[in-house]
Amino acid sequence: MGFFTSSSRQDQAAKSSAGVSYLLWIDGVGTYLVYLPETLKIGGPGETGVTGGLASEWADLSILANLSRHHASITRSGENYFLEAMAPVFCNQRAINDRVLLTDQASLRLNTDTVLTFRQPTALSASACLEFTSHHQPQQRLDGVVLMAETCLLGASNENHVVCPHWPGTVVLYRQGDQVLCRSRLKIDMNQVAVSEGTVLTPGSLVTGPELRFRWEVVA
After folding, report:
1. Residues forming beta bridges with residue 174, ordered by sequence position
2. Which domain of life is it from (predicted)?
3. Residues 25 and 214: beta-carbon distance below 8 Å
4. Which residues have CB under 8 Å from 7's CB, separation 6+?
5. Helix, strand, or coil (residue 89)
């Protein structure tokens, strides 16, 4: 996986307006949607002939599958997540008629064959993840979704929200007001400048370090 070079590394504003979502491009690992709001609406493709990437007019995550426009929602409430069905949804093979509390490793089947896996890998963070278990994907391919509460952990162990098998340590992304910041005990650089504790991620930021490299892009 490669990266684009930034033509405005030094004149990026020292703030990151925490919009709806971001893309995390991690070299050698994959591409992840980092979603900030409390509720994620999941649905099928948008209107025929309209080119889209991740969302549609009706859903925040639009999957190329036989789904209703707004098929289901996942909502964060404190440290808990709830699945709400607007169309046929099964959680761990049980039909959901209204709303259910999600637990780690829950299998979510939307309609007949679209399967997602819900993960909440550590009790140290209220953030959660969605994995695409079946072959169904948004139009812009993803390796997963992070439903980011306060922090997002990147590292080699399975207790991280994004598992990066060959990384020598952990990088922590965290929210502070309308900003998303980055810190690590590793020696890492952002746009070729050494990262201090609590460096703000700006759209287009390229973070590099020993055996790690990722890019932070705004979606909306």
Report:
1. 151, 181
2. Bacteria
3. yes
4. none
5. strand
DSSP string, 47-88: STT---SS--SS-SEEBSSS--TT-EEEEEETTEEEEEESS-
Burial of residue 173, with CB atoms counted within 10 A of its CB: 0-12 exposed, 13-18 middle, 19 or more buried: buried
Contact 186, 171 (CB under 8 A): yes
Diameter of the chain by CA atoms?
A: 52
pLDDT by residue (tens digit) across 32-81? 999 999 999 999 987 644 445 788 889 999 999 999 999 999 999 999 99
* 210 close to 27: Cβ distance less than 8 angstroms: no
Render pLDDT for 99-135 as a digit per residue (tens, 0 to 9): 999 999 999 999 999 999 999 999 999 999 999 999 9
Partner residues linked to 118 by β-bridges:
106, 130
First to last CA, the chain: 23
Q: What are phi and psi of 85, to 5 degrees?
A: -100, 130
β-bridge partners, 89: 110
Using DSSP, state whether 45 is helix, strand or coil.
coil
Domains in the chain with CATH codes: 9-36+148-220 (2.60.200.20), 37-143 (2.60.200.20)
Q: What is the DSSP string of 169-187?
A: S-EEEEEETTEEEEEESS-
